[in-house]
Amino acid sequence: MRLVTDLTSRVIAPLLAIAWMASTCFAEETATGVAGESLDTKSLWDMLLGGGPLMLPIAACSFVLLLVVFERTVSLRRSRIVPRLFTERFLLQISEGALDRANALERCLDNGSQIACVFAAAVRKWGKPAVEVEQAVIDEGERMASHMRRFLRVINGVATVCPLMGLLGTVWGMMQAFEAIAGSSAMGRPDLLAGGIGAALLSTAAGLCVAIPALILYLWFIGRVDMLVMEIDRCGQELVNLISAEALEERRASSRKPKPKKAA
Question: What is the Cα–Cα distance from 225 to 159, expressed in whole angstroms?
Answer without folding.
Answer: 19
